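Incident review: delayed structure delivery

Summary: a single-chain prediction request sat in the queue longer than the usual turnaround. Root cause was a stuck worker, restarted by the on-call engineer. No data loss occurred. The affected request and its eventual output are reproduced below so the record is complete for anyone auditing the incident later.

Affected input:
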Amino acid sequence: MGFPETRLRRLRRTPALRRLVAETSLQARQLVLPVFVREGATEPTPIGSMPGVVQHTRDSVRKAAAEAAELGLGGIMLFGVPTEKDAVGSGAVDPDGILNVAIRDVVAEVGDALPVMADLCLDEFTDHGHCGVLTPSGTVDNDATLAVYAEMALAQAAAGVDLVGPSGMMDGQVGAVRAALDGAGYQDVAILAYSTKYASAFYGPFREAVDSSLQGDRRTYQQDGGNVVEGVREALLDVEEGADLVMVKPALAYLDVVRAVREAVDVPVAAYNISGEYAMVEAAAAHGWIDRDAAILETLTSIRRAGADVILTYWAAEVAPRLS
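Output delivered after worker restart:
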């Protein structure tokens, strides 16, 4: 019998050789830790569908931020969980609302050692759970919502945020936020735009994490899962409007979209390894069906391999020490 002339296994023989020729790297600086801060909480509250993740108190989120900075993470993304909600999401623009207070707390804790990011959306703050204000007929009013987003951006900027993350998928949201920030002298506040965000079945655990009040669904503003071209178009529009980074959400079911967006834009691309993706791995590992540590690294590497420069993941702080 003949023997192969090309032997690719030569470079797989030892861990050192595999490391030498690795095409995709994963580093702590590429990971952003999403965290939830609950108004009035006196101790961290576990989130049942996301083992290991909690709703933080103001004190515990400061500790989480300090740890993230020490680990060399790429940033921390803050979500607020208010005790009271209303139809227009008033808590989102209140300087003393939980999200803006948490921004001030974390910025005071870490300074310039860790980029502080904040979700810019109304869904956590509205009693109907939608990402914008509603018309009398119950649909989301795009342009009225933009005005609230602009006000919310100014509140977050005043609190000291480094990057705002408009995530509501309103048409023109990046342009409205950029104009508001620049007009108020916050030209240095960056925008991480949730540009390509799909109406996904994998958001369930997140809705527990933020105590969502959602009535109905978000299919009139989040994208249909079958559309790639539309997703790229959304990202390009956000870049035109002033986005400093663009994001694809979710990550795992949309790795092809991550690649398409990466090839289309000239700004950094982020991807959100979302709650349902996290929960699936954790649940399978809890049953002994998969190797948890290996599955986590494989998951995050796949997102990097698809083209993401930045990954938002609930495993960020856990994984970072393993990457050094």
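Verification: The longest helix spans residues 142-159.
Action items: add queue-age alerting; document worker restart procedure.
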